[in-house]
From TrEMBL:
It holds the Pfam family ABC_tran. Residues 4-236, 253-497 form the ABC transporter domain. Keywords: ATP-binding, Nucleotide-binding, Repeat, Transport. It comes from Streptomyces ardesiacus. GO terms for molecular function: ATP binding. The lineage of its organism: Bacteria, Bacillati, Actinomycetota, Actinomycetes, Kitasatosporales. This is ABC transporter ATP-binding protein. Residues 493-531 are annotated as: Disordered. It comes from the Bacteria. InterPro entries: AAA+_ATPase, ABC_carbohydrate_import_ATPase, ABC_transporter-like_ATP-bd, ABC_transporter-like_CS, P-loop_NTPase.
Length: 531
């Protein structure tokens, strides 16, 4: 039985054919993965299926019946639900309020709605409690609320856009268990991901999109991640070089006893101290919401610490404003590229200047040098393989992964001495990821010091020379990237271990873990609490 059939879909944007004659058949009761390089056209196709964009050509059939969507409301009415990469829940409302918002007609806003939420939660093992405030939930729990929200609206086919990008391994396993429950009930899931190992483990069918068109399907049981990547790229992948250590004894960044409190007095960063040397990548592991954002903000100067010092090379920069820090050689790849990394409605070349207004090649003396800035934008587009029809298009019109490549290219182009890299390859395909790693490694060989924050534990372990674990605003543990496994590191991130981590000694996640941002709780433990 076919749940969704897309046939001959074509969608053009100025200068780009985003989708060209795409065919996709999703069977009922299956997880169907959609993979492809950055800019291949995955999001565009899903926006078409979800009624956010109209195709120029092609047809959509749901349960064998041809449909035409003018808005997401039309798609929802036909059982299509979408969980976006950026969650769209209101923090200051409860789970119940978030779920019923806009759909009050379905089951009201009171006890009937509450019963319905509990029923859906139990049926699919989501562990969602209706009356907690969303702000109290961690990333994984929020995602389950988003999933429940679309199920509440009657979705039979769920589109999940890179759902695992923000999850630790244990949370990924829990999500995949939820997907199996959905399948068992005859629902279908369309799963977009750049993590090919995960795709192969969870998908029943895989469709590969290359440069806007479907180039083939893959059978998960008979395919390796490498073969899948090669299908995406259309050629063989280079083998990654082995990394030698380049750590020196020259301190580039020294943080001492940094403390930062919330307005209420709660410590968000508590006695943070570390040193990063020239040629060293210091990886910070942690579940989102444990102080990483505050640490990055303090280092780049977006927030000032209550106490403690930050030394960069031989200078105390604790009180220095952001622009001065950047001018002196601090590079910054922000965690939220839409809020801190880009001017979405400005052309690419203006985005190339952003954050580096006073620096070469963007300025000459006190004047902006637009010609040079534009020329350098072309160079970045070329070097970092930003897929775009030109440098005059807006940043908003780039695919997510290509936006990220532009930011990385911009920051690396200023030859920083110290780079703050928050999720540097989030949303980037495997090929481009390897290229970004190479750029970082090369700069590291030349003495760059890097603070790396990443939810991708393979990246964190693979790129770091030193690993520290942040939990509840404190650096609680350290690990050797040469020996630690993603699973062991994932456990430590939930607060299950401290001190120096040895692989065998790490206990399992404690059963009583809560769903606060500080720990990654399993749905089971949430259910226990609800009883
Ligand atoms: N609103 C738009 N205006 C102009 N061009 C667009 C627009 N949306 C997408 N594009 C272009 O269409 C192509 C496909 O982009 P899309 O976002 O679908 O890729 P993707 O496969 O989802 O990539 P990623 O993995 O990076 O998210 C890209 O070249 C992109 O620049």
């Amino acid at each position: 039985m076919t749940a969704v059939e897309l046939a001959g879909i074509t969608k053009r944007f100025p200068g780009v054919v985003a989708n060209h004659d795409i065919h996709l058949t999703v069977r009922k009761g299956t997880v169907h993965a959609l993979v492809g390089e950055n800019g291949a056209g995955k999001s565009t196709l899903m926006k078409i299926l979800y009624g956010m964009q109209k195709p120029d050509e092609g047809t959509i059939a749901i349960d064998g019946e041809q449909v035409s969507f003018s808005s997401p409301a039309d798609a929802i009415a036909r059982g299509i639900g979408m969980v976006h990469q950026h969650f769209m829940l209101a923090d200051n409302l409860t789970v119940l309020e978030n779920v019923v918002l806009g759909s009050e007609k379905l089951h009201g806003i009171g006890s009937r709605a509450r019963r319905k939420i509990k029923e859906i939660s139990e049926r699919y093992g989501l562990g969602v409690r209706p009356d907690v405030l969303v702000e109290e939930l961690g990333v994984a729990a929020r995602q389950r609320v988003e999933i429940l929200k679309v199920l509440y609206r009657g979705a039979r086919t769920l589109i999940l856009d890179e759902p695992t990008a923000v999850l630790v391994p244990q949370e990924v396993d829990a999500l995949f268990d939820n997907l199996r429950e959905l399948k068992a009930e005859g629902l279908s899931v369309i799963f977009i991901s750049h993590k090919l190992g995960e795709v192969l483990s969870v998908a029943d069918d895989i469709t590969v999109i290359r440069r806007g068109t479907t180039v083939g399907t893959a059978v998960p049981a008979e395919t390796t991640p490498r073969q899948l990547a090669e299908l995406m790229v259309g050629s063989e992948l280079p083998t990654p070089e082995t990394a030698e250590s380049t750590v020196t004894d020259r301190a580039v960044l020294t943080v001492e006893a940094l403390r930062l409190s919330a307005p209420g007095g709660k410590a968000l960063l508590d006695d943070i101290s570390f040193t990063i040397h020239a040629g060293e990548v210091l990886g910070i592991a942690g579940v989102e919401g444990n102080g990483q954002t505050e640490l990055v903000d303090a280092l780049i100067g977006l927030r000032h610490a209550d106490s403690g010092t930050i030394r960069f090379l031989d200078q105390d920069i604790t009180a220095l404003p952001t622009r001065k820090r950047r001018e002196q050689g601090v590079g910054y790849i922000p965690e939220d590229r839409h809020r801190h990394g880009l001017l979405l409605e400005a052309p690419l070349w203006e985005n190339r200047i952003l954050g580096h207004v006073t620096e070469k090649p963007n300025s000459k003396g006190v004047w902006l040098d637009l010609k040079n800035a534009q020329q350098d934008t072309r160079r970045i587009v070329e070097t970092y393989d930003v897929r775009t029809p030109g440098i005059d298009v807006t940043a908003a019109s780039l695919s997510g992964g290509n936006q990220q490549k532009l930011i990385v290219g911009r920051e690396m182009s200023h030859h920083p001495r110290f780079l703050i890299a928050a999720h540097p390859t989030r949303g980037v395909d495997v090929g481009a990821q390897a290229a970004i790693w190479d750029h970082i490694r090369e700069a590291r060989r030349e003495g760059l010091a890097v603070l790396l924050i990443s939810a991708d534990l393979d990246e964190l372990i693979g790129l770091s020379d030193t690993l520290r674990v942040i939990y509840d605003g404190k650096l609680v543990a350290d690990a050797d990237p040469a020996t630690i496994t993603p699973e062991a590191l994932g456990s430590a991130m939930t607060g299950a271990a401290s001190g120096h981590l040895e692989d065998e000694e790490i206990p399992e996640t404690p059963a009583g873990a809560t769903d606060s941002p500080k720990s990654a709780a399993s749905p089971e433990s949430l259910e226990d609490e609800a009883r």
